[in-house]
Structure formats: C-alpha cells, structure tokens
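Its record is retained below.
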Amino acid sequence: MIHLTYYEEVDVSSAPGKGTADYAAKSFHVLIVGGGIGGLGLAQGLRKSGVSCAVYESAPEVVRSGYRLHMNSDGGRALQQCLPEPLYELYAQTSTATPRRALMVHFDHLGNEVGTRPHLDPPNDPVRPHTAVNRRTLRQIMMVGLKDVLHLGRTATGFMADGDGVRLLLADGSSATGDVLVAADGINSVIRRQLLPGVPVVDSGLRGLYALAPLTDEMVATLPAGLFDGFAMISDPKGTLLVCGAYRPRRPIAEAVADLAPDAEIDPVGPYLMTGLFTPPGSDVFPGGAELWSATADARHNVMRAVVDDWHPVMSGLVERADPATIIPVTVRHLEQAEPWPASRVTLLGDAIHAMPPAYGTGGNLALRDAASLARALTQAARGQVPLLEAIGAYEAEMRAEVFPILRAASDPRASTVPEFLPDLQ
C-alpha cells in the first residue's frame, strides 16, 4: 500500500493570528472547480501543506483529454513542489526518455530537415531534462491520495461570495462553502464567465485532427531521427502542418507503478507517436466542425490521408500508421488577455484565465506553475502570515506578469503557422 506523507514546508513558528498556525490552516478551506492537472496540482500542494480543500469535477471519471504533454521547467518544478516525493518520482520515471536534441525540429513534406527552434524555457531537471508525459497518466498519478477530496460528476454552475466566504453552486442543487474558490475549469470556465464576463473566447480558425500510432522498433528504424527529438513539425507549401511527438517512457508504466505506488489505479500505456494535422484558417480541406465531430473514425482517417497524399511516403506514412480509433478533432481557441481585476475570494488558474494555442507546448506547464504559486499563497494566508486578499492579489499580479506575455506570443498567428517563429518575451 502506498503511503504518502504530506508535510509542512513553511516555517510557521512565528505566524500571527488567533490560536496556532496549524489550527488556522486546518480551519481554512479551499474550493477548487476542475479536476485537470491544474486543479489536481493545487489540491496536492495544499494537502502537502496541511490546508483543507475539495475538488469538484464535472466528468464522472478521468476522461481522455489530449495525449502527449510537453513538460518544461515550469511544470517540472511545480510538480516537485506540489507532489509527495513518491508521486513526483513516478511522474519522472513514466515521462519520456531524454531526446537526442531538446529542440523543435522542422521538416518539409519531402522529408528534409529545414530548421530547428529552441524551446521557450530551460530544461526542467539536470538529470532528466526536457521531457514529455502521457496526459492521462499524469492525471491519474496526481489523483493518488486525493480520493477523500475529489468529487467527480459534480458540475459547477456559479458562485456567491461576500466578505466572510464563498459558496459554490452545483448543478444538482447542492452547494459547498469555503474561504476561497479557485476556477481551474478550463477555457469554458463558468466561474470566469461570472467573475470576468468581459474576457472573450477567440476562435483562431485553426482546425486539426490528433491521432496516435503505436511506436514499434520497426517504425523507429524507418523514420528520421529528428522526429524523436523534442518535437517535430512537418509543413507543405499549402500551409498544412503535421506536428509529431514521441512518447517513450523511461520505464514501463506498470513496472514503475508496482514499485512506487502499487495500489494506484494507473493505466498501462505503451510507446506511441502522436500526430496532429492542422490546416490554416480559412482552409476548406477539413469538413465543417459539426461534420468533423460527428464523422466516423475511418472517415476522419480518410480526411487525414487525403491531405498528405502528395507527401513523401515516409512522412505521409505517419498518418497512414495512425490508429483510427484514436483520432480526435480539435478546434484551436484561446482567451484574450484580461485587464487587471481586483483581488477577491474567487481566483483562477490555468486555461480558465490564460487558455492559449498549443504552439509552444506551455499551456499545461503554466497551469502547474499557477497551481504551485497559488498553493504557496493560500498556505501563507491560511496560516495567518499574509492577509487573504493580499496573498491572492500577489499571486494574480505575478501570474499576469509571467504568463500573459506567453499567452500573447502563443496567440500570435505566426506561432501556429510559421515553425521557426520565436517571439521576444521581454
């Protein structure tokens, strides 16, 4: 049986306030809407610091929501801060093997390597740098130890807040009360729409189809080595982009789970190559959104094949090898940058406030960055070290300063259509 030790990392020996800091932390309660990696990261970080919390997730189970997730220094550091050591080690061991080059590699549709682009950030670990994970595996790892605070199948509809606390309203007619409400419920956040109704969701016009192909030794031997570096993009003169990323865990998942978390419910996942085929805004290559979402798996696969039928066989073969059952359509949307707002008992993290296109592979990492930063801020407030609204305001100001420049860069159309485009984030 796995034993997770949640310990206090902040010195509270001189914390001000009534009673002990330990009592203050335990009486303070945080409501989290959304059980994605941002919400789970915050819950793990709060539990690690002894702060009470509850997570409300609308899905009845961990659903498939994307495949390969790039991990960088923001995400890696945040996980190390929030997770108990055994779970952080399980994340590290089930992440991908270190690639030959930690770069985005650009190929043309004929198979020629035509350029590279560095990642926007330094490696996340000196021993296991620039890696990637299977998103579902990471979520399952992050759920370990949270069974008593994770409420699945509970949909939020809004909130009521005053100077004394906040009430979360749920679709089944029930409600929950706490000291703080955190929106971690993604780009369609109902909490953000109530708190900041003026922030628009923008449709970039990009449409895509993601798919997986089982990664065999035979397949690896036939493909250019650059496809197995940090990430790869393949483009053609029509503006079509095929993005590729390999997932090859450092250790078989079942073996790592048996060693580090034997009672954890984590699905085994073998090596695969993720591909994502995107066409530029205004293109009529893909059917309309509704038609694409309702199409059969084979019909989606045929659409992908038709787009790359004049590519070099090695490159078009990446699409041919895709498992039709794994093909999912994608509409690329993002949020406009919100103007600064006054701090309150309701705050936000991740895609709920800065959803961005996947151009630089930073969205999930920034959600984890937010989770670790907010966990520290709320821990200080719970222990009476910093007034609550001051702690939340400082978190939000830091998030705007560090994350919004990346949101602006990733939302630039060139970020998704020009493989070598690298923004100046200063």
Remarks:
- Residues 388-411 form the longest helix (24 residues).
